[in-house]
Here is the input.
Amino acid sequence: MKITKINLVGFRNYLNTTIEFGNNMNIFVGDNAQGKTNILEGITILALTKSHRIGVSPNIIMFDKDKCKLSGVVKKNRVVSKLEIEITNELKKLKVNKTPIKKVADYISYLNVIIFTPDDLEIIKGSPNVRRNLLNIQLSQISKEYLKYYNEYNKLLKTRNEYLKILFNNSIADATYLDIITDKLIEKAVLIYQKRKEYIDYINLHINDYYNEIANDCGLVIKYVPNISIEEYDSESIRKKLKHTLKKNYLKELNYGMTMYGPHRDDFYFEYKGYDLRYYGSQGQQKLAILSFKLSEIPIFNDYCGTYPVLLLDDIFSELDIKKRNKLLKIINNGEIQSIITTTDLKNINKKYLENSYIYNVKKGNVERK
Here is the structure.
């Protein structure tokens, strides 16, 4: 998969900018606050319909404009698609090849992306919601079935929580309806558990090798932590376990007015040599662990989708010393993966990795290819 072109109109600090990308490495060079990260954000929104950025103003529309538009051309297994998103303060309009798309689920997967940013330390240090969100985004890109079940689960979860509050306040309300909702919720939950477990198992096939290749060290593994005890991941075992747990904790959930058990309370953590990396790892080890996680996702996308995703790396060189950054470039510069990288300079980069790269200068929202 390659993104060959993107056009940013009224987006952040880009009035009307078109960028054409090379098939391999694309490196955007410039000082901080010039608009490099905005380019990666534009690609991410074009792929996922929402931004990856944490703690940044959600107002992505340029000042004094009432809308912004992102469009791009994507080539996936020789099939060329034109994607377009128009965003106002009220809504988003999605199009593929000029045809309006009403459901996000029908849009996502035309452009698959994996993004690494300095904010990704939150994946280790932040709340479980950050880690669940990561799994949901990545699984939604490779499995429409997962996205469908996840959306249906959330709707049922909201209904169940509302009805628990009704039952708490009205003792004569029909509890049979809750049982019907619960059974439907469990059916959706089963697939979510299975897909997440499968995804993390796949990550663990690769993550330690990538960590070792960059850091010359090993002992990294991801531990999946559902908030119910699951020993076997066949459908019937999960179904029985979740149903038993919800029945056992009915009064507890009734008092709190919410569903307290299920995949919406899942978590996972990074274990390094037997220790939780959140508490026993340096910041450098944590960043490398997250980078290794993201690299491990690349072969998963290729196996599920038949093509590699576009790799977005924001300010990656400042995160790594000279040896590690060149080891990373060796991994991604294999002729098959398209990467889009931002950096403040190209110092200490082996020139052989720059020979087939597109290099751009970015200054105050102006992009010029060298």
Q: What stands out?
A: The first helix runs from residue 36 to 48.
